[in-house]
Design brief:
Residues 2-67 form the Mop domain. The protein is mainly β. Helices cover 10% and strands 46% of the residues. The chain has a 4-stranded antiparallel beta sheet with strand order 3-2-1-4. A hairpin with a 3-residue loop joins strand 1 (8-18) and strand 2.
């Protein structure tokens, strides 16, 4: 797979929760969990399942920063 996005995080699918129209996919990236919401059609095409290797591709126009008081 070749794409222009540089923020690609390799991990393992730990949970796939299918809803009425969207699927929530949880990917373990080195002990941190990234959750994505994608269409059911996309989840089916990717054949997502627990234990499958996956890549979280992050594309954002803004990055917010916060600190604790």
């Amino acid at each position: 797979m070749k794409i222009s996005a540089r923020n690609q995080l390799k991990g393992t699918v730990v949970e796939v929760i299918k809803g009425a129209t969207t699927t929530h996919v949880r990917i373990d990236i080195g002990g941190n969990i990234v959750t994505s919401s994608i269409t059911n059609e996309a989840a089916d095409e990717l054949q997502l399942a627990k234990g499958k290797n996956a890549i979280a591709v992050i594309k954002a126009s803004d990055v917010m920063v916060g600190v604790e008081d």
